[in-house]
Design a protein that fits this description.
The complex is a heterotrimer of chains A (303), B (358) and C (369).
Chain A (H helix, E strand, L loop, with lengths): L1 H26 L7 H19 L2 H25 L4 H20 L12 E3 L9 H5 L1 E3 H19 L1 H11 L1 H7 L3 H27 L11 H11 L4 H24 L5 H23 L19
Antiparallel strand pairs in A: 1-2
Helix pairs in contact in A: 1-6, 1-9, 1-10, 1-11, 2-3, 2-4, 2-9, 2-10, 3-4, 3-9, 6-7, 7-8, 10-11, 10-12, 11-12
Chain B lengths: L1 E5 L5 H26 L3 H10 L5 H26 L7 H17 L9 H27 L3 H21 L24 E4 L3 E7 L3 H16 L1 H11 L1 H6 L4 H27 L11 H11 L4 H25 L5 H21 E5 L4
Antiparallel strand pairs in B: 1-4, 2-3
Chain C lengths: L1 H25 L5 E6 L9 H16 L3 E6 L6 H12 L4 E4 L5 H10 L4 E5 L8 E6 L1 H15 L4 E6 L4 H17 L4 E6 L6 H13 L4 E5 L4 H9 L2 E6 L10 E7 L2 H12 L16 E3 L6 E3 L7 H16 L9 E2 L5 E3 L7 H4 L16
Parallel strand pairs in C: 1-2, 1-3, 3-4, 4-5, 5-11, 6-7, 6-8, 8-9, 9-10
Antiparallel strand pairs in C: 10-12, 13-14
The chains are: A mainly alpha (303), B mainly alpha (358), C alpha/beta (369).
Chain lengths: 303, 358, 369
């Protein structure tokens, strides 16, 4: 059970990170469908950096930077040139798939050392929980830290409130004097960084090598997770564990000979997301506080 | 700093210049990237953009590849014009194919080619039904159609996988996930040309495009429904004021685009594969989104956009065969092209002004 | 503006076609033109990489006497038809299509190009100019079973398989036969990845197997991910298609290596000397060329990470299979529900292997679908 739980957590972390980043991006009113692309570039960047510099921690930095780079491309077009966010996001994923395929070609077949586990003194000795919670790698701790940070940030910090204001009504936020574009740039880049680190987790911890398109749709699941969590940070943890859990459950089911076709099990997370969406949407129509109201709408800066 | 000021009306000049400029900028950036990565840039350009035109059968293969993209893209055009974001065409494509294919397999000895038309209708229904889910959730419960349609893509992929590995698997396939071959009546033939024979894969399904483009052009430009769709997309408030039924329009465009995606699936599989298999779509549903935008949400533009994207896809194959460049370069070109085109769209509506940072 | 663009464009076209011409005429000799179609990239380190190694042996053997074109990442569908036709059009005289899913596309194109020879790998349909070639992969899996049976402490073997097709099922059953020849208590659990290549999924499957108590892992998927996990978690496993010890120096017991080179070389030589043929033999199982350990189309890498006594047993199994002393599917055979497949004194023929849709004793669960 311990080992299974660890596997589920490991599978969930890329989703968790990418979804958390996207949550902040969306809170600022930007819908970036390029998460998959940002994750891929994070993965290839991380692997390249580790091969070049030798230390897996550089992989985290490189992964984050590559994600930010991709997010910047997205920001230039959607925020500055006011292009359609849906189309640009899709374009970003397609672009990044191509670019990482090319850039990753020389990395194919190379392998790197994994990110080491960090044991937290004493806590890691607690039976059962210790092994799972306090004997993780750096990125795992980082992802929890980020969740705690953004929960606080959105709820209590002034910047967080400004961010939400920009996402809810950019015209009013602008007229009050907030720099809408600048805030959206930051939020999008933060999303890119998280997605990049999430992508980096795949070669740094899960399977230490590169293959084209190795994120295999996790970026899209992250997008679903944000909605599943109805834009509330801690719920992303729950959602990511459910998604990860189902991914692993269908494998366990096979090993143990459960009589359910694996495809049907694999469908569950997607169907669950649709159900969750439907349920929260009912609530949204009553109180407009959950979904950022300006989500996906380009902001035109009337001087 | 760059600032934008809105134009009084959409700039005619930019409408023409933008796509051409985008293509040149794409080529320029492509050159840059390839030089940087150590490939001969000129030869890459030749292979990716020109080699698909170097033989008549290669040219006809462009049309074959463009066929599903144009059909799906035309449907998506309607959605996007109405500001309805159906990005699940891939799933609708699959479900249309699956429904029509399962139907065809019920009649193993059908020979009459009339059968194809029934399949196309069923494919339309299959795709439309799959699009009906986001449509009804959007209109009744205000659920975001982007995410629902996207989630349903994955459900559709897994569903067809389950079907061709289980219920519809051909017992003679030695366990491989393939259905029985379609009956003769469900196969779209290649077009024979007197004296030449066949040209690549060119098949009768292409004729549907010749029908679809003018019809959709008339629909969006000359009918009241087309007008309503445009108004809803560009000026939702005006649409409300004029008393257009927003929900009806949303459902209609989703059903039409889902249906067309299903039709594209039927044609693609009946002409090129001839049986059901776990993978029937190869990303056409997603690529068609780019085609729709590249074609500037205009039927004739979409035809050209489909041809351009198909060219790049085939060109990338050629580049790989002759130069060993990974095939993913297509994505690179598609992505850059899309970025510039979208920017062009902005420049149509806004004047650009450079000023010093204050 | 438009005129200017047109001029630039035609200038490009001109320059490019000149370039193309120069490139073409540079190879004006008469080498045999050989085409390969790959499902993924050689970077998979498994299936396609093994073909790539075979291709390299061809290059080494023939040098300038062959000109090879390769297309990677060709999905099994309409694209395959187009790519194969393109290779035929470009004057390739023999084309190797290296995945099962290219069967129909290969046959389709072969009809249009009666003078071009086609070699479809792992298929079962032949025509006048389509031959089929395959490897008896299952023989290596028997030896894997023997080693696994001797090395396991938990008596649980984790097997990661791609698709429930006959080729994979016979591999699992062959593994079970080897396993039970040395250890009657051990059993195999199978996880179907439903993909040939998805490193992350394969890694997840490996982790689940280990969590469920397996201490020996085997795979019939293509990436080295499973062995990398084994290495990290301190369990043992077998390499697939190519020697993967570089990825898992402490975990790989040995690898069954697909050795396509000699087959390719032989077929190209036959073509050059005009003796190329599609052989005869029944059409319902993989064609005329189905070679295994004896034909050296399947090689076994160095036995490692095991005591000498186990290596000795493994070697005995290898020798026995080569000499024909060991018949893997000899009766009496019972499936894992207790149903008799064949009585003592008989053994399964190749046709029966390709109709396998059951597990033999020693495998848990049942074949999906």
């Amino acid at each position: 059970m311990d080992a299974l739980m660890l596997t589920i957590i490991a599978t969930s972390i890329p989703l968790l990170l990418a979804a958390t980043g996207e949550l902040i991006t969306e809170k600022s009113g930007v819908l970036n469908l390029g998460v998959e692309g940002m994750m891929l570039s994070g993965a290839v960047g991380a692997l390249g950096a580790v091969l070049w510099l030798g230390n897996p921690y550089f992989g985290i930095i490189a992964g984050g930077l590559c994600g930010v780079l991709m997010a910047s491309i997205f920001s230039i077009f959607t925020i500055n040139f006011m292009t359609n966010q849906v189309a640009t996001g899709l374009g970003l994923t397609i672009f990044a798939t191509g670019l990482t395929g090319l850039a990753g070609a020389p990395l194919v077949g190379k392998t790197v050392p994994s990110l080491p586990k960090i044991e937290i003194f004493l806590l890691s000795d607690i039976p059962f929980v210790g092994e799972i919670l306090f004997k993780q790698d750096f990125i795992a701790y980082l992802s929890v830290a980020i969740i705690i940070f953004i929960t606080y940030f959105l709820k209590y910090s002034k910047s967080g409130i400004v961010l939400r204001a920009v996402g809810d009504d950019h015209q009013s936020a602008h007229s009050v004097g907030y720099p809408v574009k600048k805030i959206r740039w930051y939020a999008t880049c933060f999303g890119g960084m998280c997605a990049g680190i999430g992508g980096a987790y795949i070669p740094l911890v899960l399977t230490p090598h590169w293959s084209e398109g190795m994120t295999a749709g996790r970026g899209w699941i992250a997008l679903a997770l944000v909605v599943f969590a109805s834009w509330i940070p801690w719920r992303i943890i729950v959602g990511a564990l459910i998604f990860g859990g189902i991914t692993i459950a269908q494998l366990v089911g096979q090993a143990r000979g459960w009589p359910i076709p694996s495809q049907i099990l694999s469908m569950m997370p997607y169907l669950a997301t649709i159900v969750a969406l439907t349920m929260i949407s009912g609530r949204i129509s009553k109180s407009n506080s959950v979904v950022p109201a300006s989500l996906g709408k380009p902001f035109f800066d009337t001087q | 700093m760059i600032t934008f000021t809105p134009r009084d009306k959409v700039s005619k000049n930019w409408t023409i210049i933008a796509p051409i400029l985008s293509i040149f900028l794409t080529i320029f950036f492509g050159l840059l990237i390839f030089t940087f990565l150590g490939y001969n840039p000129l030869e890459t350009l030749y292979q990716v953009f020109l080699s698909p035109f170097s033989r008549i059968d290669r040219i006809s293969d462009i049309f074959v590849k463009a066929c599903p993209l144009v059909i799906v893209g035309t449907g998506l055009m309607l959605c996007f014009r109405a500001n309805v974001w159906n990005i699940g065409a891939e799933g609708q494509f699959i479900m249309g194919t699956l429904l029509a294919g399962s139907f065809a397999l019920l009649f193993p000895s059908v020979e009459t080619k009339f059968f194809i038309f029934i399949m196309i209708v069923i494919g339309f229904i299959g795709g439309a039904l799959w699009a009906f889910i986001p449509a009804i959730l959007k209109t009744k419960l205000n659920v975001n159609e982007i995410l629902v349609s996207l989630m349903l893509v994955y459900v559709a992929m897994l569903f067809i996988d389950f079907i061709v590995r289980g219920p519809l698997r051909d017992p003679m396939s030695f366990g491989f996930p393939l259905s029985k071959p379609y009956p003769d009546g469900a196969i779209i033939n290649k077009i024979p040309f007197p004296g030449i024979g066949y040209l690549g894969q060119l098949h009768y399904g292409i004729l549907l495009i010749l029908l679809l483009i003018p019809i959709s052009w008339l629909f969006v430009n000359k009918t009241l429904s087309g007008f309503k769709i445009n108004v809803l997309g560009s000026a939702p408030k005006a649409a409300k004021f004029a008393g257009f039924k927003q929900n009806t329009i949303t459902i209609t465009v989703l059903l039409l685009s889902g249906g067309l995606a299903g039709v594209a699936g039927v044609i693609e599989v009946s002409a090129n594969i001839g049986q059901l298999q776990p993978e029937v779509s190869f990303g056409y549903g997603f690529t068609a989104i780019i085609v729709a935008f590249l074609g500037r949400l205009n039927p004739i533009g979409i035809l050209f956009a489909g041809i351009i994207i198909a060219t790049v896809k085939l060109g990338a194959d050629n580049a790989q065969m002759s130069m060993g460049i990974p095939k993913v370069v297509t994505g690179l070109f598609e992505g850059i092209l899309l970025f510039f085109l979208l920017t062009g769209e902005t420049l149509q509506k806004y004047k650009i002004k450079w000023s010093k940072v204050t | 503006m438009l005129k200017f663009c047109m001029r630039i464009f035609s200038l490009f076209a001109l320059g490019a076609s000149v370039l193309f011409f120069i490139f073409n005429s540079a190879f004006a000799g008469t080498p045999t033109k050989v085409g390969f179609v790959y499902l993924t990239t050689p970077g998979d380190h498994g299936w396609t990489y093994a073909h790539e190694l075979g291709k390299q042996m061809v290059e080494k053997r023939f040098g300038n006497d062959v000109k090879i074109s390769v297309v990677e990442n060709v999905p099994e569908g309409p694209d395959a038809t187009r790519v194969i036709r393109e290779l035929a059009k470009q004057g390739n005289e023999i084309i190797f299509t290296t995945s099962f899913g290219y069967m129909e596309p290969t046959l389709k194109v072969a009809k249009e190009f009666p003078n071009v020879k086609f070699e479809h790998i792992t298929g079962y349909k032949r025509s006048k100019n389509v031959a089929t070639g395959n490897i008896r992969f299952y023989e290596g899996r028997y030896i894997q079973g023997v080693v696994a049976g001797l090395m396991t402490k938990t008596n649980k073997i984790g097997y990661i398989a791609a698709y429930p097709i006959a080729e994979v099922i016979m591999g699992i059953n062959s593994f079970a036969q080897g396993l039970r020849s040395v250890n009657k208590d051990a059993s195999i659990s199978v996880i179907w990845a439903n993909t040939w290549y998805d490193p992350v999924k394969e890694a997840d499957a490996a982790k689940v197997h280990i969590a469920e108590g397996a201490d020996i892992l085997a795979q019939h998927t293509d990436s080295p991910a499973m062995l990398q996990i084994a290495e990290k978690k301190g369990v043992l496993g077998f390499g697939q298609s190519t020697d993967m010890s570089a990825f898992a120096p402490k975990a790989q017991l040995f690898a069954s290596i697909n050795n396509w080179g000699p087959y390719y070389i032989r077929k190209i030589e036959e073509l050059k000397s005009g003796k190329w043929n599609t052989g005869d033999g029944p059409n319902h199982w993989a064609g005329n060329d189905w070679g295994g350990l004896k034909a050296e189309m399947l090689l076994i890498s160095k036995f490692q990470n095991m005591p000498d006594s186990v290596a000795k047993k493994a070697q005995e199994a290898l020798d026995g299979l080569k000499s024909g002393k060991i018949n893997i599917f000899a009766g009496p055979l019972v499936d894992n529900t207790g149903k008799e497949i064949i009585p003592a004194g008989k053994s399964l023929d190749d046709g029966a292997l390709f109709r396998m849709n059951y597990y033999l004793k020693g495998v848990n669960g049942k074949v999906p679908g």
